[in-house]
Design goal:
Layout lengths: L1 E4 L4 E3 L2 E3 L6 E4 L14 H20 L7 E2 L2 E2 L22 E2 L10 H29 L20 E2 L5 E6 L13 H20 L4 E5 L2 E2 L9 E11 L4 E10 L6 E11 L13 E2 L4 H23 L10 E2 L5 H16 L5 E6 L2 E8 L2 E10 L3 H9 L13 E7 L4 E8 L8 E11 L8 E9 L9 E3 L5 E7 L5 E8 L9 H4 L5 H15 L13
Parallel strand pairs: 8-15, 16-23, 22-24
Antiparallel strand pairs: 1-4, 2-3, 5-7, 5-11, 6-10, 9-12, 10-14, 12-13, 13-14, 17-18, 18-19, 19-26, 20-21, 21-22, 22-23, 23-25, 25-26
Helix pairs in contact: 1-3, 2-5, 4-5
Amino acid sequence: KYYLKAQKQEKISGEVYRNPTEVKMSQIVMPCHANHCGELSVGQLLKWMDSTACLSAERHAGSPCITASVDDIHFEHTIGCEDLFSSCQWNVCNAFGKVQLKQVIPRTQTEQMEYSIAAERRRMRLTHAEIITDLLSSNTCVSVCVSTGECQEYQGAVSAERTRVESVELVLPPHANHQVSTFGGQIMAWMENVATIAASRLCNAHPTLRTIDMFHFRGPSHIGDRLVLKAIVNNAFKHSMEVGVCAEAYQGAGALRHINSAFMTFEVLDKDRKPRTLPRIRPEPVDGKRRYQEAVARKKIRLDRKYIISCKQTEVPLSVPWDISNQMYLSYNNVSALKIMAARSNWMLSSEKNKVSLYTLEENQILCFKVETHVTVPAEQAFHLLSDLRRRHEWDRHYQQCDVIIQADEDDTIYRVATPCVSKGGKGQDFILLASRRKPCDSRDPYLIALRSVTLPTHPATEDYTRGEVLCAGFSIWEESNAVTKISYYNRATPGVLPYISNDIAGLSSSFYSTFHSCNKYLEENRDSQTVLPPSDR
């Protein structure tokens, strides 16, 4: 049984609130839906996902909708014929589609968080092509020798041409949606089918689809179209391969129209469900070389997304290496992590003094804390004053020294922060922090200043300081009126941060009050001052 849903339920004023755009679909996985392994085929899954998303979009728009694009899809689990008596459910994949609609008005905390994070995903979509271009023009992607195809490096490699697949599908009425256009889910399913065939020609085995890069529909297809689907293996890595696939349409003697393109990553699993080593690919000259190099660039982007955006502590250290090519993903992770932490509703008040409150949240052996206060300073002015960490020493005694290392752009700055020693006879700590700042998407969104640790080869740890790390921290700045602003500071406690706050959390100290009392004083003393901005903001 396969279950899809578009939104979650939350309680508002004690009652269960159901988003009017929420759509749920339940399906029994039948043999006709299965692949060679007896598992739900990805093509069928894409059809169901597309139908569910379209129905949700139409509930919001109040008019017919079509799929414009789909963000990257990562398949976490497969779906087989489940034991209906176990009631076991698990997440298979998540995806986000895009349509042009009227403004969304979120009502719950979860909806507001998703609404806000959607703006970060849009930033990534808009810069995706630019990042690929930058990677190809840099030395990140290793050039390949394919002029003759006789290089020793490719001896024994499989020719990419051998994996080329072309198929033609006639679009019939059952393939159309309620607007008489070819159903987007059907096009994606056909694309997945030819990509799977191309992948199988490289490995002579049944491949398993792991990820799909962004689908972007460039134009519609209609009943009577001949849909030409083309696929080829662009590159093969040790345990995975990338297959490029495109869909074009024509009618009669008309010219081909580009409908969609996508890049799919496959693995071949052994009997223990572990990835097998794949044969190398020998790219063809010119276009083959271009596809080969672009696949290397996309692989790096996929790794950035996997290890930065997902940020699973079991897979990576707290600090992630900074590189200009992964700036967008680090910035996205930085801001999204803070938004998710701020959206949590189960904060517990630990202590309060003169309207400065300390909250804690402890789950799964992870401790987070929040300090909250109000100031009579306009929110935008508070945002600019707190954004420049070089001035934080004026109110925070833990910031002994702060220097700008890299001014990436107007939103992202990397600082080195030096902090004093907590215990006698020990060394102070230093942090390499990425500060990502965001102005509100609209009146329901706060100003944000997100902080997380990164590593730079130019600034390794030294003997004079212990290198500390910050996983997620920052300020959420809400405008409550023209003169009153609520400021919340969040931090997910790490070994480098905990010594500075543990006494306050344990109730043995109230230094947090002194620090944020100084912060209030600093903001109010500078409420009318001309803010000195970083060079990129001037």
